[in-house]
């Protein structure tokens, strides 16, 4: 498995050894690009070095970061430094769902949050069926629980800059020593410190990947009718709507709207859904002009 990519060279894990590999020239003539997480066939050329001959079929592909065969995403957020944006958090969850990955929610910097803030977030998100872990990467509390969800799997840590992804990885992976920076007091946004894609090996099993920080992800490749499927609390209810193509806006006898009015779906989640739906619809309209 490719565990690190840098400057057109690749570190490949072969059993307990790491080979530094280049790519066979034929790849330069095809659209196949080697990515971190790829299962590959290699030929040993000299001790510690080899050539990648073939990339095996992938079960999943992410473009940001460019990594293959990921099983799940740990969505990291914080109540303060930086303050959580529920709209950004919901956007990220939709994108992870659309990518077909399992989700783990990780509330970091819990020491900076009040009990009421933690419980408010738990009420909204723990009911969606996602594992909900809260921890404090600076002192290691909650790390063992988080690590239990990562064993034997390839996981990406995703979230806005400054939420503590690199600090979490330093706690999870012995000797990782990823660079971290304090959050800007003015912007309350971290300065992203990850440069290359690298899969870090967990003990006893599994890998974890740090992802570039971001504050915005586009949804323009999605169709309006597909959006509700990526909201777990709406997915099951959609079949109860009067119309099969209900978009849960103004349609009568909408089970999703009824659930919002009855408090079974959080208003903030529904507001995110409507915002994303409008964005997708605008893109579709402009696409056919």
The CATH topology name of the largest domain reads: Rossmann fold
* β-sheet strand percentage: 15-25%
Terminus-to-terminus distance? 45 Å
- SS class: alpha/beta
Radius of gyration: 21 Å
Query: How many structurally independent domains?
Result: 3
Bin the helical content: 10-25%
- Average pLDDT, rounded to a whole number, is 87
CATH top level of the largest domain is: Alpha Beta
- For the largest beta sheet, what order do the strands appear in spatially? 10-9-8-11-13-12
3D architecture notes:
By secondary structure, the chain is an alpha/beta fold. It folds into three domains: 2-57, Nucleic acid-binding proteins (OB fold (Dihydrolipoamide Acetyltransferase, E2P), Beta Barrel); 62-210, Rossmann fold, CATH 3.40.50; 224-287, Ribonucleotide Reductase Protein R1, domain 1, CATH 1.10.40.50. It contains seven helices and 13 strands. It has helices at residues 86-98, 115-125, 143-148, 165-172, 232-235, 255-261, 267-287; strands at residues 2-6, 9-14, 17-23, 40-46, 49-55, 61-63, 66-68, 72-78, 102-108, 132-134, 154-158, 199-201, 207-210. The strands form three sheets. The protein has a six-stranded mixed beta sheet with strand order 10-9-8-11-13-12, sandwiched between helices. Helix 2 links the parallel strand 9 (102-108) and strand 10 (132-134). Helix 1 crosses helix 7. The termini are far apart. The model is unreliable at 181-195 (pLDDT under 50).
